[in-house]
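Researcher: Sit down with what I've pasted below and flag anything odd:
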Amino acid sequence: MSNNEQAWEKELTFTRFDRMSEKYPDRAAVVYLGEKFSYARLRDLSERFAGSLVDIGIKKGDRVMVYISNCVQWLIAFLGIQKAGAVLVPVAPIYTSFEIEYMIKDSGAEIIICLDTNFCYVKEVFDKTELKSAIVTNLVDLLPFWKRGLGVLFDKIPHGKVDRDSRVHSFKSFLKHPPLKSQVKLDPRKDLSYILYTGGTTGFPKGVPGNHLGMTSYVNDVTEDVAGNYLKEGEDVYVAVNPLFHIMALGLCMAVGLNKGNTTLLMPVPQVDAILETIERYKTRWMLGVPALYRMILENDRLERYDLSSLTYCYCGGDVLPVEVFNRWKELFGVPIYQVYGSTEAGHVTYSRLKSRECIVVDPETLKPVPPGESGELLVTSPYTLKEYWNKPEETEYSYVEINGKIFYRMGDFVSQDEDGELVYVERSADIIKHKAYRVSASEIEAVLQDHPTVIGACVVGIPDPKVGERIKAIVVLKEDARGVGGAELITWCRERLASYKVPSYIEFRDMLPKSKVGKLLRREIRDEERRRMSEEKG
């Protein structure tokens, strides 16, 4: 191991941020809804938040759930949680009470940071879980009074009702606490930085734990091996559109922005005109998006009004980028869209340094390597990632396999490898649907449908769609005595229990589903059938 590697392995992402705050105290670390937060101010707020967490009893290793949209409070909470030695558990702010109840119980989170608009869901699960406190905020809490006043005047700020009691605190009150007196001592290898939830194959999301070394490695992949000298420390500007609860978005935000003394333009929602105006105004050079966002920008009727000539490094992840979107973007702007491929479990794969990650392509049944040019499942290993799921021994045993003395993660995606070692994407696992760049577990939706009293079987598949990646379709078998149950009722049932992006677009009813001799659902057969149907309709 080189001296350079030994040095960064001892670093933490938040201590790198602290170093940048000393080097560039007056530079804007974050611009959020037009308000600038300098590095010095952001550090002070994060240390005050950390002090408050410690004051209410948070100890090293305790889990804190972050259940809010992109906003400066998200970054303050993230940095504060890490400084307090606690473990970040970020979840989508649109999750329902049904979903967060499971994740609170599974992660063991005792504190949740939420919006006033989703506090109603937190209230529902308070007495069903071990939650001790809720810290509530609004998207504009940290903006100047006059901006908040204008937002209220023009009815631009969503608000929710919050029932105050001893368990409920305001986010702003936590920022009045004296800063954390002394940094909690952390072991980068042993102590957890986060638990991120991703789609499961058993019907429930899986918690992916990551230590501080893994988080630093994730950032290092970008700052040293991808961006390198192209990234201008203390001068560059990055627009953050993707939700920060996703590892790719959080990693890029820290790597290109807060760990390099650069400015991050934080977008609360992916509103295309607001994004384009922000890029033009701040001369943004770096951007991360998903295929659907790049398509929406290209199809925007007002695109020609904006000067986007500053855009230089555009990254895309979360789903396969259609060739026509790539070509149209390059022709219009003169720069390519660089693709990111990886997973929550394995981190970056396609643009990691070769000595950090090793990939092999195997037969999914035997786990034996396949010859070059043949399709197989992609397996990845890294010395910097943990090789387990949180509280999921059976899923861990299936997804993490030992080959030649190393533990590999089964990506679930099928690829081929050419003679030069380049990976060619073939298709993803039938269990995972990519809808609007979200990884949606087909089995999770099936489990919710099968909880309905009239449903005895369900199969969920993704139908290719150029605008959203894949549309979600459910095929359902009802009990013989079921009467009057239609697709609308089952969609409503799902909407009450799942985040909006997981709800099926439509439902088809059948008498039976294809299964193997051992009773396993043959989801791939349904997918192939749907693709043939689409081809016939186009033909």
The first strand starts at residue 28 and ends at 32. The chain has a mean pLDDT of 88.
